[in-house]
Structure formats: C-alpha cells, structure tokens
Amino acid sequence: MRTILLVEDDLHLAEGLTLNLEAEGYQVVHVSDGTQAMPAFEKGMFDLVLMDIMLPGMDGLTICKKIRAAGHTLPVLFITARDETDQKIEGLLAGGDDYITKPFNVQELLARIAGIFRRQAWLAADEQVSDSYSFDGRTINFKTYEATGPGGKVVLTRKECMVVKYLVERAGEVVSRDQLLDAVWGYHAYPTNRTVDNFILKLRKIFEDDPKEPKYFETIRAVGYRFNRG
Q: Which residues bind DNA (predicted)?
C-alpha cells in the first residue's frame, strides 16, 4: 500500500481528499500546518507528498526544497489556488513533480497521482538506457539522480532526470517541446513551453562547458531540442 503525506490547512478539503485517496487504496497521513510537515515526513515512510503551496507556518515551496536538500527523491504534487505560471514553474524547479489548481476534480487529481507513479516506473526502467549513462566525461545515474558535470557532482530533481532520459533515449533526434511536456509531465495542458525551456537552461548549467554555447543540449530553432553525445 502506498502512503501519502497530505499537507493542507483547509480541513474540509483535507477530509474529502483523505476519504477519496483511502477509497483508492492509499494510506494518508494529514498535517494542517507547514511547520508540521517536515517532522511528520521524517517520522514516516511516504511514497508521495500532496501539498498546498500556501500554508501557515511554512509554505510548500520551502518544504519541498527542504525535502530535496535532505536527499529525498519521492514525488511532490503541489496544490495551488493561484493560477500563476511563474509560481508553478518555480515549484517545478524547486523539485515538485506536478501541480493541480483549485478548484479541481478529484478524479483529475487521482489521475495525476497515478501518472506520477507511472512515470516514476518509466524513469527507473532500463529498457533503452542503463541505470548509469555517460557521455563525453559527463555521467548521470537514473536511479540515484546523481550527476557529474564540469562543475562537479550534483543531485538532479526527478523531472530533470526525466528530461535527460527522454532526450538520451532519442540521441540525435529532434524532440519538440510538446513531446517533452507530454512524456515528462503527462499531458499537454501544462503552463507553457517555458517549462521545458527553464529545465533545459538548468541542465546546460550542469552539463555544458559553456551554457551559452551548448554542445550537448542543442536548441533547434522553432522546433525543440536535440541531445548530442559529444
């Protein structure tokens, strides 16, 4: 049974979510204050964190950053009442895996959670690339999310790993932004193509000698990106 940590200060919403998640076979642990999130997280073994961004005590973005800084790679799904693209992208770059905007349909939320676990399994699979991949002196481990570039070792977020894996599996091919959005985030109705662009910019800072003159993560103007092994 998968266990979800629910961090939500709206008690009515939290109660409804708990009932629906438990009906789907998930075990749910709920806390209503941001300051309670990390202590609860450290006490349990969770498979996913479902968390509001706007919380009393400590906001969801800060909590997510603390989870990632501690080396935890479990998925984080944000709940937000604000339909602002910049905040959503900030959440994804902070290590979030997905978001859903209030008000939302519970079935959509359940589909998002199922999609996260499905893509998590794809990332862990080694059908086309092994657990560890090397190119031109750079390395990335798709199990541990550890990577090595010119600047040394870093730990990638799950989404960064997914973007790299999708491009690596199609090395030499031109991949559109929509293809990446659909494969990595699971649906087309995501913020904008800026989401992909921001992730590529971050990956260039990690893997390129000169991020402004990319050799490995190449932009194909008006189309998308191409990964070159070097």
A: 130-229
- CATH number for the region 3-124 comes to 3.40.50.2300
Select the more confidently predicted residue: 112 or 30. 30
- Rounded to whole angstroms, the Cα distance separating 230 from 214 reads 11
Give one word for 186, left, alpha or beta, with left for phi > 0 and alpha for psi -120 to 50: left
Phi, psi angles (nearest 5°) of residue 101? -100, 130
- At 5 the three-state DSSP class reads strand
152: which 2 tokens? Answer: 């040394």
Q: Tokens 């199922």 sit at which residue?
A: 114
CATH class as words, domain 132-227: mainly alpha
For 19-136, strand residue ranges (E) read 27-31, 48-52, 76-80, 98-101, 132-135
Measured CA to CA, the distance from residue 81 to residue 101 in angstroms comes to 6
The ranges assigned to domains in the chain are 3-124, 132-227
E-strand spans in the chain? 3-7, 27-31, 48-52, 76-80, 98-101, 132-135, 138-141, 146-149, 152-155, 174-176, 217-220, 224-227
pLDDT digits (tens, 9 = 90+) for 171-181: 999 999 888 88
C-alpha to C-alpha distance for 44 and 62, rounded to whole angstroms: 19
pLDDT digits (tens, 9 = 90+) for 47-62: 999 999 999 999 999 9
The structure tokens listed for 117 are 């676990």
Q: Could you tell me the pLDDT band of residue 168, with boundaries at 50, 70 and 90?
A: very high
